[in-house]
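Tutorial handout. Part one gives the primary structure; part two gives the three-dimensional structure as tokens.
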Amino acid sequence: LTGILLRCLYLDTDPRYYDWVGYITDEGRWIQGARNLALHGHVEVSSGMNFHLSMAPLFQLSNYLVFELLGVSLWTSRLFTALFGSAILVLFWRCLRRAVNSQALLVGVALLALQSDLIALSRVAVPEMVVMSFELAVYFLIVSGTSPWQMVSAGALFLVACGMKATAALLLPVFSVVIL
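Part two.
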């Protein structure tokens, strides 16, 4: 719960990221198409935005839906990412609670919940945490796959992850090896 609170409280404050400040300031480009569509009714095409729109069309669409439901603000632009950053913690706990010693699981979830990079990336409007949550779900579906439907679901979630950010496709060889 502490990890979820860290990801969801004060989303409208500017983050301090120790590694590369340009990474965090890039968040406006990842949601620019969604914001323009919600505010102006069209996606304004510019050379800088085309890259982000083509790399993450489902991320932009998801943020557009959040903007339509809750309005356009700094807080709503980061809400989608914060929810999926929190989903990683819940998914990790849920999928491992019967397979791992409870003390070990508590330590593992606490490490994920309090890891500074995961907190920082869960609090800005960039697609990495959303993609990571889908990739984790795909992994758990593959390794616990007892039915063909789990593999089909894993494939569908993998396609969604690729729609959230196209670079997720680079994990296809990894997931293929895990399946084999």
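Part three, for discussion. Residues 25 and 96 are 35 Å apart (CA to CA). The radius of gyration is 17 Å.
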